[in-house]
Design goal:
heterotrimer; A alpha/beta; B alpha/beta; C alpha/beta; B: Pyruvate-ferredoxin Oxidoreductase, domain 3; seven-stranded mixed sheet; 6 helices; 7 strands; globular; C: Rossmann fold; two-stranded antiparallel ribbon
Amino acid sequence: MGELRLMKGNEAIAEAAVRAGCDGYFGYPITPQSEVLEYLMSVKPYETTGMVVLQAESEVSAINMCYGGAGCGKMVMTSSSSPGISLKMEGISYMAGAELPLLILNVVRGGPGLGTIQPSQCDYFQATKGGGHGDYRLYVLAPASVQEMADFAKLGFEMAYKYRTPVMILSDGIIGQMMEKVDLFDPIPRRTNEEIIKTCPWATTGKTANRERNIITSLDLDSAKQEKHVFDLDAKYKRMQAEDTRFERIMCDDAEYLLVAYGSSARICQKTVDVARAEGIKLGLLRPITLFPFPTDEISKLAGQVKGMLSVEMSLGQMVEDVRLAVNGKIPVEHYGRTGGMIHTPAEVLAALKSIIIGG
Amino acid sequence: MTEEIIIAGFGGQGVLSMGKILAYSGIMQNQEVSWMPSYGPEMRGGTANVTVILSDSRISSPYLNEFDTAIILNQQSMDKFEKSVKVGGTLIYDPNGITKHPTRTDITIYTIPATDEASRRGNARIFNMIVLGGFLKLKPVVEIENVMKGLEKSLPKRHHGMLPENREAILLGMEIIVKK
Amino acid sequence: MEMKDIIKPENLVFKKTSLFTEKPLSYCPGCGHGTVHRLILETIEEMGLQAETIGVAPVGCSVLAYEFMDIDMQQAAHGRAPALATAIKRLHPEKFVFTYQGDGDLAAIGTAETIHACNRGENIIIFFVNNGIYGMTGGQMAPTTLPGMKTSTSPFGRDTEIMGNPLKITELVAHLPGTYYVTRNAVHTPAAARKAKKAIQKAFEYQKLNKGLCFLEFVSNCNSGWKLPPVKSNEWMVENMFPYYPLGDIKVPSL
């Protein structure tokens, strides 16, 4: 066991980034995630680990600072909330194209537009289907606790380097603002420049006589080459699907009905499962931990076992489309959820299950 | 054991910090804890509330529609949360500033004159600790020694001189809470 | 007859700097970009900084600058080169970092990044090639297009009442405390090019001192966009661009 602390999700991920050996954080304030930058500025990692922390002039600038840093092989991170993530999307697409490792935290708030600062899960499409322009995907992790906010910072960096890709942690105002007990992992030293040159031979670390020059770009005016590049990216996404799809099964073994929910909504649904079970309803919960790659196979398997599924999201229903694709018409799949910053309660979820799935 | 609590009042009454101290105390006692605040502009001068859960096992939803205990410190919160107490649950409130008193008969209601006691002692800062003491008298979910450790953790070092007065405030709260 | 039969050591009077790659320059004949590239690469070569330098290319005609420069480079999104350079320099303070940007990239879409990198005093060099037009996309109006100047999006000449005024961003950044050395040059004559190279050399020297940002503008031509033959375009530049964008130092370090 490492160090136990009571922390907000936003603080936990900031502390975990420092401990994971992050080289640079570039961000811009926006509610409900400003604690990330505030926490980093208060603990001054530039005086301890040497990590650079910079408040940029905009989200656009922040993501492009990440591009520059990641292009040098450095471990970089940014964070924002929905409107700010939209601004970062151009840069995220460029980084996906240039195959640069990055950790992005989105503490989602209700939209569209300026929307509300209250929690939401309405950015699922943006996170999992692209968001920016072009044929690309992000590796998307959905933490459901403050502990996972910390743990996924480390895991996210690992995935970002394993696949040379931007990784998004899709959180929301609940996970970002709530405090829970966190068991912090022991700090990992930042990599030296020599280690970076060895492990990231593609990085712009200065052209030496023993290698060709390194170029970081997402541009290829030769369409045949660009097509090959996109095929290569796709092969990488297929490898993610095979090797790094993550999910959690809660009371699924004997389930007759299934809730599918991620992040804070999965926490709410856990309570619904407890209450339903007390009433004699055999309810289970499948919690996707990675939203891309999506646990399609697991849901497909469960479609052969349960009578119906309810996708519970704080949105109009976005993930429900992926659940339906996995189920492929075998059983009814419906959506329930509040949106616009409203949060469904465990009781509301149970009532919806009864009326839409069990009674439906 | 699982205790689901809502603490609600004005911003500035120490609602969020009281919840934080309770959560930290839970950690000191090896419990699982969660602390889920209302956040945003409503915090600034308006109402503030926090849901605190202490449990021996993994906590499911940090966001709840009903509570074992509601600690209510202004009228707006009374209007909003009286109905959210579970049947058989507990409602604790400070009568100061309350014009419409709670009327439910399927819960147990307690009052604690914390505002009056704090101002009588000329120390508004101990208000929330008096209330916390009252809660702990009814629901000894954490030991006072662990509360003191939690306080130590959540107070910056420069305020550690205030630990004894906080302890006294908790003990005072335990004495003055009464069943309505 | 092959190249080696023509170029013999005894008649070799001029050669490409070794830091140019073998890739033929894609710039229009007569364009100033090639010369500015060469002056920068010569300086890096002469100072022995190939392994120490990281460049950032923009979007615009010089989007492919990395294809010609034999150094490590990154290609930025439109306007964002100073943001990339900020992070590169802060994460590799021992390296020499520069951006190479055109007027649309630097003074329109990237104005915020330019101003704030300058204002923070990032220890980088910004090379700014100003030819008053969007060359790559086919000759549209730029933030630095002169009043009355015809472009494809100001076909009757820039009307400042409607389209606003040309932006003297170099004078603007000179006012910021974060800039250390701000100067404006041209490369249309050998004398001007020699002067420009001195400025480039100084900028690399100054980067060692960590005193702030060096901002080097090069007023240049765009014979394709201006629809003039190369020589005429240089004459037009001298007559029209130089009065609006006068050459010379704007901010020099008090050493």
